[in-house]
Structure formats: structure tokens, C-alpha cells
Amino acid sequence: MKSLKSKILGLFIGLLVLTMSGMAFAAVGTTTQKMDKFFIGGVPVKKVVTISWVAGTGGGADDGDMVPATINAATYELAGYYLYSIETNPGDTAPTDNYDLTVTDADGLDVLWAKGYNRDEADTEIAFLADATYGYYVVRGNLTVTMVNGSNTVAASSGDIILTFVAQ
Questions:
Q1: Contacts for 79 with CB less than 8 Å, ≥ 6 apart
Q2: Among 107, 95, 109, 92, which residue's Cα sits nearest to residue 147?
Q3: How far from the centroid of its chain's Cα atoms is residue 165's Cα?
Q4: pLDDT tens digits for range 67-103
Q5: Taking a C-beta distance cutoff of 8 angstroms, is the pair 104, 146 a contact?
Q6: Domains and their CATH numbers in the chain
Q7: pTM of the predicted model, to two decimals?
Q8: 36 with 58: CB under 8 angstroms?
């Protein structure tokens, strides 16, 4: 009987090791952020937040989507600034053509006014964000940058998202 318990335990440990090793190959994507400030007369008039992303490698339908990135308005002192433009630069391993991005506020409003949709996989693109009715979005709190709709299916793809904020 002890032999049967040993075999079952060995089988269980073997299955556990196989499961864990399979999980090790499915990497989650990463994002990093940096901010640059531009001054006139010692006053910051423009702030540029660059988000560099690398997609996951899990093999699922939307595993190419970037990990959502939160832009902390307090850390970057963005409250009261206008969100002026978004620029997207595909990386060496390009994402799926026409991938979609949103930048949402705490209320879930897409402050890009849908101008983050259908981004190109090969070319740098820039969109200026003035809405015909409301003008530019004024930052009130944190913003979340998300790749949506399972729009990127290329594992380990990468790129940069550059958001420009200007003082009022």
C-alpha cells in the first residue's frame, strides 16, 4: 500500500512540475513610464509621458494586448493640464494592424474621443485630441491607458505611446 501512495504522490508532483513549467513560458506583458518636462521662464508648460510596452506571450487571442498602465496625475503633477495629443510608435515586433487604445479617466470616459482606435502597425501616428464640442480634456485625476477589444494578437509585440499634456 505504501508503494501505491508513493506512486500517486510521484504522479501528482510530476503533474505539478509540468503545469508550473508550462506557466513559466506564458509571460505577462510589461509597461514602463517616464515623463519629460518643458519649461518657459521656469514654468512647466508641456509634459510628455512616454509609456513603453511589451505584450505578453501567453498564446491566447488577446495575449498581445499591453498590460494597462495608470498615469498617476499626482506623481506627474498633471491636474489642470490639457491632454493635447497621442503618438504611437510600433516597436521592432509590430502589433496587429489597426490595434485600439483608450485613455480613460476615473469615470470611464475615453479622453481620446476614440482617436486611439485603428493605430497602424508600421508607422508612427499622431492624433491631436481637441473635441469639436468640448475642446481638450482637462486632467482631473489618474488616467488609464489600455489596449482594448483584443485588438493585438501578436505575442511579445512592443511599442511606445507618447501622451503630451500642455498647461492651461
A1: 73, 139, 140, 141
A2: 95
A3: 18
A4: 899 999 999 999 999 999 999 999 999 999 999 999 9
A5: yes
A6: 27-166 (2.60.120)
A7: 0.80
A8: no
